[in-house]
Amino acid sequence: MTAWSTADIPDQSGRVAVITGANTGLGFETAKALADKGATVVIAVRNTDKGKQAAARIGGTVEVQELDLTSLASIRDAADALKSRFDRIDLLINNAGVMTTPKGTTKDNFELQFGTNHLGHFALTGLLLPTIVDVPGSRVVTVSSNGHKMGGAIHWDDLQWERSYSRMGAYTQSKLANLMFTYELERRLAPRGKTIAVAAHPGTATTELARSLPRPIERAFLAAAPVLFAQKPDGGALPSLRAATDPGVLGGQYYGPDGIGQQRGNPVVVASNAVSYDVAQQQRLWTVSEELTGVTFPV
C-alpha cells in the first residue's frame, strides 16, 4: 500500500481551518501543511506572541486567535471572535492538550487534564458548531492518544480526581473522553449529512507534550524515543491531516500509525478500546459535559 503523505492533501483554497495549540509540535505541522495547500489557517493559542512567531514561520494566510482552554470565559470570547470574523469554518482540529501534569485545576475548577483536553474542546466545538454544521464537507477532528487504552474507563465515581490523583490515569481518561465525544458527535451530526466528526492519534512523537513527565522519566523518554519508536512531529501530524482532508474519510473513524504498537508509520484507520464504543457511556459523558460547561450543541 502506498504511504499517505502531505502530497495527498487536496487543494484547500477557500477553506478555513481552526487549529488549537498550533504554535508548536503536531499542531504547527498540521497548520503548515494546510496553509501550504491554500487554506486560511487560524492558530488558536494561549500565548499569542508565540502564535505570531509560528504564523510567520508557516507563511501563507495564517491568523492568530487567543484561546485559553483552561478558561470557559476565554473559550467563549474566542468563539465569539471567530464567529464574527468567519461566516463559515470548514475544519476544526482540536489538537491542543496537556499530558501527565501535576495535580491542578482549570480556572473553572475542573481537573486540569480532563478540563483542558476534553471539556475545553467540548465547549469550543459546541460554540463554533453553528459556523461548521451546514458547511458541505466540513469536519471536526479531535486528537486523542493511543494511551487512552491504558486507563480502562471513565472514573465516574471521581471524575475530577479529587479523592486520589494519578498523572497518567487522569491523562488517559481525558484521551478516552476525546474519543467518546467524537463518536457521539458523529452520531448527532450524521442526519444532517454535511459535517463529520473524526478522531486521530499521532502514535509516539517527539513533541513538547512530554514536558510534564517526572524528570527522570522525561529524560529517559526523550533520549530513547527517537531511536526506539517515536516519529518526528511532521510524521505524528499525518493521522490528523488525513482525518481532516482525505476525501475517503468516513465520520466516526479513528486514524493512527500502522506500525508496531501504532507508535509510528503510515496513517490508517485504527480501532480504539471497547469502552470508547459504549453508546450509553458516550451519552452519559455528553450530558455531564454539557452540565459542567454550560454549552449545548445545535445538533
Output the keywords.
Rossmann fold, 13% strand, globular
Chain-wise SSE layout:
Layout: E1 16-20, H1 25-36, E2 40-45, H2 48-58, E3 62-66, H3 72-85, E4 91-94, H4 112-128, E5 138-143, H5 167-189, E6 195-200, H6 215-228, H7 233-236, H8 238-245, E7 254-257, E8 267-269, H9 279-293
Parallel strand pairs: 1-2, 1-4, 2-3, 4-5, 5-6, 6-7
Antiparallel strand pairs: 7-8
Question: What can be said about this structure in brief?
Answer:
This protein has 299 residues and is α/β, with parallel strands linked by helices. It has nine helices and eight strands.
Can you describe this structure?
The chain is of the alpha/beta class. The protein has a single domain, classed as NAD(P)-binding Rossmann-like Domain (Rossmann fold, 3-Layer(aba) Sandwich). It has helices at 25-36, 48-58, 72-85, 112-128, 167-189, 215-228, 233-236, 238-245, 279-293; strands at 16-20, 40-45, 62-66, 91-94, 138-143, 195-200, 254-257, 267-269. An eight-stranded mixed sheet has the order 3-2-1-4-5-6-7-8, sandwiched between helices. Strand 2, helix 2 and strand 3 form a beta-alpha-beta unit. Helix 3 packs parallel to helix 4 (112-128) and helix 4 packs across helix 9 (279-293). The longest helix has 23 residues, at 167-189. It is globular, with a radius of gyration of 18 Å. The mean pLDDT is 92. This is Short-chain dehydrogenase. Keywords: Oxidoreductase. Pfam families: adh_short.
